[in-house]
Specification:
With about 325 residues, this protein is α/β, with parallel strands linked by helices. It has helices spanning about 5-20, 45-60, 75-85, 100-105, 145-150, 165-180, 190-200, 260-275, 280-285, 300-320; strands at about 35-40, 65-70, 90-95, 120-135, 155-160, 180-185, 205-210, 220-225, 250-255.
């Protein structure tokens, strides 16, 4: 979904004006105590790194500690449910991502939360394109080579994924649209899958580009973003190679549903400020993020609804089940 710059300016401008123009006596006393941000991943990964940088800006701007609460496991569902069940008082936020809020709902209709109704979706933080990687010393040079290998190899090509729903659904979409013959092999993370590709035990891996960046023994043959990555402009997108499939691993700030509008407006402004800081831009680029796109509610919510519909159709067409 392309974000309209004019809508973006109007949305953020209205939010800032709403906060600034409210009478002093009407403004909520927020925050008066530490703020918690729940992350559905362990420490040290890309979303954790970006969120901690944002939290530093919030701490300075709000003069209250912002505490990071890492809750990995369960494909992000455990942490995401905790965010949904928290009080909508501006003291619990969380990191949303396509796994528990877009692809998992397509596979698991009985999740303990609704991806739209149970949250206030506030502002995009970062986007990391999925990428397809093969061994740099192998014969596969592009996606067409990989698909050709799948047609000749018994069982198709063995492709490692981080064990999350996104890469699995991308490969399923490639199967439905282009006849890809693939055996999906889940791993604990994209880095582990890449290691197996280098060792010759896998033909390819699909994961966030940042998990492959800097590994000279891997050849990234396609980005699944709309545009080429600014740090690796020589790598073509999947779409440029004739396959109309895109997928960015997105991370955004969210809160429980019914977050007060004044707090939502202030939080949105703080995210935008933090993500535009030169040091944040440098950090995000270094760990493989695409250039920052200022996307806020309601455009962010609309994007999520569109993604849910797209992946639900892939699941129905493939008669897929949760694993």
């Amino acid at each position: 979904m392309n974000y309209n710059g004019l809508t973006r300016r109007a949305t953020l401008g209205a939010a800032s004006a709403f906060w600034a123009s409210a009478p002093a006596r009407a403004q909520p006393a927020w925050p008066t105590r530490p703020i918690r941000i729940i992350i559905p991943f362990g420490p040290g990964g890309s979303p954790d790194t970006v969120t901690r940088r944002m939290a530093e800006h919030w701490t300075a701007a709000l003069r209250q500690p912002v505490v990071i609460d890492n809750r990995p496991g369960g494909g992000g569902v455990v942490a995401t449910e905790a965010i949904a069940r928290a009080a909508p008082d501006g003291y619990t936020f969380g990191i949303g991502n396509a796994g528990p809020l877009s692809t998992s709902p397509a596979l698991e209709p009985n999740l303990p939360y609704h991806p739209v109704r149970d949250f206030t979706h506030l502002a995009m933080l970062a986007e990391f394109p999925l990428a397809i990687a093969v061994a740099s010393n192998g014969p596969v040079r592009d996606v067409r080579d990989l698909l050709a290998l799948g047609r000749t190899k018994q069982g198709g090509v063995d492709v490692g994924t981080p064990g999350t729903a996104g890469p699995r659904l991308v490969l399923e979409l490639m199967r439905q649209r282009y006849g890809a013959v693939v055996t999906i092999v889940p791993y604990r993370g994209g880095t582990s899958a890449g290691t197996e590709v280098v060792a010759g035990r896998l033909d390819a891996a699909v994961a966030s580009f940042g998990e492959f960046a800097g590994n000279d023994r891997l050849r990234v043959i396609a980005m699944l973003s709309d545009d080429r990555h600014p740090t690796r402009p020589e790598i073509p997108t999947l779409r440029e190679q004739g396959f109309d499939v895109t997928f960015n691993v997105t991370f955004w700030l969210l809160a429980p549903a019914l977050l007060p509008e004044l707090i939502a407006a202030r939080a949105t402004t703080l995210v935008d400020e933090a993500m535009r800081l030169p040091e944040t831009v440098s950090l995000a680029t270094r760990i493989g993020a695409m250039p920052y796109r200022p996307i806020f509610s309601p455009a962010l919510t609309s994007m999520l609804v569109e993604d849910n519909a797209r992946w639900s159709e892939v699941v129905r067409a493939g008669n897929l089940r949760s694993e």
